[in-house]
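User: Fold this; tokens only.

Assistant: Input:
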Amino acid sequence: MTTSTRRTAKVPAVLVLEDGRVFRGRAYGAVGETFGEAVFSTGMTGYQETLTDPSYDRQIVVATAPQIGNTGWNDEDDESRRIWVSGYVVRDPARVPSNWRAKRSLDDELVAQGIVGISGIDTRALTRHLRERGSMRAGIFSGEAVAADSELVARVQAQPHMKGASLYEEVATKETYVVPAVGEKKFTVAAIDLGIKGMTPHRMAERGIEVHVLPATASVEDVYAVNPDGVFFSNGPGDPATADGPVALMTAVLERKTPLFGICFGNQILGRALGFGTYKLKYGHRGINQPVQDRTTGKVEVTAHNHGFAVDAPLDKVSETKFGRAEVSHVCLNDNVVEGLQLLDQPAFSVQYHPEAAAGPHDAAYLFDRFTSLMSTVMEGQRA
């Protein structure tokens, strides 16, 4: 066992759900208490990318894979500057990490960043409970934070709901920074950081794009000050119904007919800008094995997801919006949730999932090429 695992392996811990269900186990990571929305992620690998994804802000993540931590923690795979999950729930923590890139154990990193977790519980039973009852508020308590069940349930029930939560400004950069193009610079993109993952601008840079990452509070003047060939809206946490600022900014971009690409939270922002509603899913999509069909090609992709909200747009028809015709371009084959939108009369599209493949499969990498194609087409039209 690692030092931190030995230190906490016998410390009692409880996971308490807002509906009164209690799971008892052992402390994992930091000892103390934490609150958040309990959700489950079906990825069998990629826990480092998951934990450092800003879209997981204020969520307690349940790993459905039975053993977590085998590859330890390295200094290369972080998707942001810190771990964002509120808490982490695992069944069987790896006693000894084994990977040539590992610098320390997962448990050590959780302790270092103050992330309270729990291990040794029946995560299958917990996942089934969340599937049946829906994602809900929860708390993890360990060591001296453990108290009577009734007291802990009351404390969990006093926490805010995820619906109505405005979180994207909490996780976004405060200052603009630039990710240079790899090789020859072909395009300039203004990327609105609503909780962006580090691999996303890297994927664009690989395609000759110089990416200017702007704060979530950026104005339309800030965006066009970089003279962008395209504008990108990132993933992020919270309820899209609270994101009036980003919706107004995207509306201004659409009015200028600048090529536009959004992912995850950015897809929901596009939906709102087009006049569609959004709603909270019962338990959401989280993992790296979600089947999505690209309806423009018929191709089925295995994709990485992390979203608890979705766009309410019709699947069976082309919709008329103030920016022209729009259609649902991608759909989840598990439950028919809208997974992508595209405008037919101007260069704008979005997807609900994570094509940067961190962690996750590379099936959706073509979406970055689709974005560059849109920018090329517009640039050629301007030169003609």
